[in-house]
Amino acid sequence: MSLPTKTRAWSIREIRKDSFDGIVLQEDVPLPKLGERDVLVQIEAVSLNYRDLAIPRGLYPFVIDLPVVPGSDSAGTVLATGPKVTRVSKGDRVCTLFNEQHLANPITPEAAASGLGGAVDGTLRNYAVFGEHCLVKAPSSLSVIEASTLTCAPLTAWNALYGLQSNILKAGDWVLTQGTGGVSLIAIQFAVAAGATVVATTSSSDKANALKKLGAHHILNYNETRNWGEAARSLTPGGRGFDHILEIGGAASIAQSFNAIRMEGVITIIGFLSSSEKQPAAMDILNHVCVVRGIFVGSRQQFEEMNRAIESTKIRPLVDSKIFSFDELKEAYQYQWEQKHFGKVVIQVSN
């Protein structure tokens, strides 16, 4: 069977602030020739992140280079490899790395500027050629749909909990997660698997029940409990505060996180905050004697560590019940934009 030389691919051609109509489907896009250390991958599934929605609407504050194929998360099968490829083999199921040059920590400016689907062409295409350095083998315990969610949200959660060597997650720790986005949902599972106690915030009783099923020990409804940071802190032993807080809400919730963190605890800032929001001041950090850490997803080394943990603990990422086809990309974007999802939104590229 001959290898493909062309692919269908979605492309962000222009920014449209009020719609996703700047994304167009292109037919018969030529594939580059396979280099010595390149890998040809048939992309089978792609999961979405808020970043994917923000880029075509002009809301993304980091490097993009239009036109660009969107998407960073994916799982697929290796169809062919260059003669010097050693990390993967034909037939392997692989996942893409969010920042292609982020192989190990510390992250560099070059690595930070190598994001799939923004700075370089991403995953929303049937076939793609990647350097072997920016692929990892998918956990054998997961389906291709589940594996397609790992690139961004789970790796970000893993980095938040295990990326700072002086404060890695351990049994007995207390962890606070916010909301029901992809990072928070998998962070609950990672923390529970490690023997930590998890307090999760949400806005509804239906979501609270789902969080309990994932293993969260305590749930706080932030619509009902205005000072939820203090309420969460009161749950910890002696009211000492949390060892780890995954800060998702930005300026709207950072004050609550400061109220909940213990001395020398770690608040990890996840995602990007808009420039119009008031950022935490240095004195806020000093007053609470804590570490505030910003992260940019995670490295290939961390990805491989995370995948080993997923296999050993049998963790399964939560996927939304509605799976979209490749041709339904804009519908998938709008579905997530309207926050109709619970769990990761996945586009099935090929069967």
Automatic annotation (TrEMBL):
Domain Enoyl reductase (ER) spans what residues?
A: 18-347
Q: What is the lineage of its organism?
A: Eukaryota, Fungi, Dikarya, Ascomycota, Pezizomycotina
Q: Mind telling me which Pfam families this protein's record contains?
A: ADH_N, ADH_zinc_N
Listed name of the protein: GroES-like protein
SUPFAM superfamilies, sorted: GroES-like, NAD(P)-binding Rossmann-fold domains
What terms describe the molecular function in GO for this protein? oxidoreductase activity
Query: Which InterPro entries does this chain map to?
Result: ADH-like_C (IPR013149), ADH-like_N (IPR013154), ER (IPR020843), GroES-like_sf (IPR011032), NAD(P)-bd_dom_sf (IPR036291), Zinc_ADH-like (IPR052711)
